[in-house]
Amino acid sequence: MKTLGNIIWVVFGGVFIAIEYLLGSVALMVTIIGIPFGLQSLKLAEVALWPFGKKVVQKEPSSGCLSFLMNVIWFFVGGVPIVLTHLLFGLLFYITIIGIPFGNQHFKLMNLALTPFGRTIVNK
């Protein structure tokens, strides 16, 4: 079922979201300061391309203050538009019963886009 959901996701827009994150990642990695943010965008691109069967978890040995500081910078610099986009798409998918699993994936991406530092992606 995960594979079928991922195929439908990719065909109906997931590939465009992943490409968008990938292009953003390349743009962020142009400067040395932007490299950590570009790596987080790559993490988002990975989940955006094939979201079913993946889970976002908090890293156990937390990086503490640095992770918190990077999440605050991420939130104010670029996280808000990404979060609002996933929120809008998630709510639109929730209009139909068939779209609820896809809305859930957008809410998972929204949660990751809100605070990507200190989190990791695991397969279920």
Q: How would you summarize this macromolecular structure in one to three sentences?
A:
The chain is mainly alpha-helical and 124 residues long.
**Within the largest sheet, what's the order of strands?**
1-2
Q: For the report, how would you describe the main beta sheet?
A: 2 strands, antiparallel
Terminus-to-terminus distance: 13 Å
List how many beta strands DSSP finds: 2
Q: Mind telling me the C-alpha Rg?
A: 14 Å
State which percent range the strand residues make up: 5-15%
Can you tell me the number of structural domains?
Answer: 1
Transmembrane segments: 7-35, 72-100
Protein name: Inner membrane component domain-containing protein
InterPro entries: Inner_membrane_protein, UCP028777, YccF
Pfam family, one: YccF
What does this structure look like?
The protein is built from 4 helices and 2 strands; from the N terminus they run ααβααβ. With 124 residues, it is mainly alpha-helical. The protein has one domain. The protein has a two-stranded antiparallel ribbon. The radius of gyration is 14 Å and the shape is globular. The relative contact order is 0.17.
